[in-house]
Design a protein that fits this description.
Blueprint lengths: L2 E4 L11 E2 L15 E3 L20 E6 L5 H4 E6 L8 E11 L1 H8 L4 E3 L3 E2 L5 E7 L11 E4 L10 E5 L3 E4 L5 H5 L4 H11 L8 E4 L5 H13 L2 E6 L5 H11 L3 E4 H5 L2
Parallel strand pairs: 1-2, 13-14, 14-15
Antiparallel strand pairs: 1-6, 3-7, 4-5, 4-8, 6-9, 6-11, 9-10, 10-12
The structure holds NADP nicotinamide-adenine-dinucleotide phosphate.
NADP nicotinamide-adenine-dinucleotide phosphate binds next to helix 4 and helix 5.
Length: 260
């Protein structure tokens, strides 16, 4: 299940939306977050992080050590770096909480950032300003992280142009914010292991997962048929209908799959 962190205008009610305030920045006064294999992590470098005591334009969800996210993640004010020649000033529009974001904070994910770090690996932002040598993006563009570890749970940040990918701004905000992980994983699963042809069939379990729903939609667009396995649940028909609306050909429970 993916929950979105939205811009503050969408932060109403007691739902799972949290402040869209997470990412990574470039100047020494900001978070310079790089993903490292767990085995080569460095100790937290206090000099790489500055939480301003005064009200700042940039708010971020930051963790200084690994542990229970509810305990180690704090809302902090950060300073915004100056926009250098190849830099892009981005205002985050929405950023999800992916299960792997939680694992990263807990410290049990394969790739871990230098600490302190801003949480969040995906999301979508709008370009506010660009440096003089930036050619690939312009103010107003929507951008997503090119790689994991950007730290998207923040309101604004200054990133390098090479750290961003432009996406169309006429797609749903939530789709743009969740484009970078699950749909890409689904696409790679469908493309990298077998040479599938239209009319071929793909079977998957956990088909209601974020990845599974992307598999259904991409497969349908490629003319592939999908057999989607679910765990049984009280509202099975509702979920079955939803997956079929996405393009699923068959939806079966694990129990049905085991029957002759
Ligand atoms: N690049 C990558 O390598 C990459 C990227 C993204 C995701 N992933 C992997 O893809 C998978 C899906 O990720 P996601 O974020 O899309 O997941 P998600 O939306 O959080 O959904 C989790 C899914 O797992 C199912 N599930 C949990 N426990 C299960 C069990 N014991 N038996 C059968 N099904 C079970 C859930 O079914 P219920 O609804 O019945 O609970 C649900 O369909 C995960 O394994 C994740 O690690 C890999």
């Amino acid at each position: 299940m993916t929950y979105l962190a939205a811009s503050s205008s969408e932060l109403t009610g007691g739902n799972m939306w949290v402040c869209g305030a997470l990412c990574r920045a470039r100047a020494p006064a900001q978070l310079g977050q790089r993903l490292l294999p767990e085995s080569s992590r460095r100790r937290p470098d206090a000099a790489s992080f500055s939480a301003s005591a005064e009200a700042s334009r940039v708010r971020a969800l930051v963790y200084g050590h690994h542990g229970d996210p509810a305990k180690v993640v704090e809302l902090k004010n950060l300073e915004l770096a100056a926009v250098g020649g190849s830099d892009v000033h981005v205002k985050m529009l929405a950023a999800p909480i992916n299960p792997s974001d939680i694992n990263m904070i807990q410290g049990n994910y394969g790739l871990l950032p230098q600490l302190p770090a801003v949480g969040g690996n995906e999301g979508v932002g709008q370009v506010i300003a660009v440096g003089s040598s930036v050619t690939g993006v312009k103010p107003g563009d929507w951008v997503i992280p090119a790689n994991p570890g950007l730290g998207t749970w923040r309101t604004e940040a200054v990133f390098g142009e090479e750290e961003l990918i432009t996406v169309p701004s006429d797609i749903p905000l939530q789709s743009a914010a969740t484009l970078g992980v699950n749909p890409c994983t689904a696409y790679r699963m469908l493309m990298d292991f077998e040479r599938l042809q239209p009319g071929d069939s793909v079977i998957q379990n956990a088909s209601n997962s974020g990845v599974g729903q992307a598999v259904i939609q991409i497969a349908a667009a490629l003319g592939l048929r999908t057999i989607n396995v679910l765990r049984d649940r009280p509202d099975l028909q509702k979920l079955t209908d939803r997956l079929k609306n996405l393009g699923a050909d068959h939806v079966v429970t694990e129990e049905e799959l085991r029957k002759a």
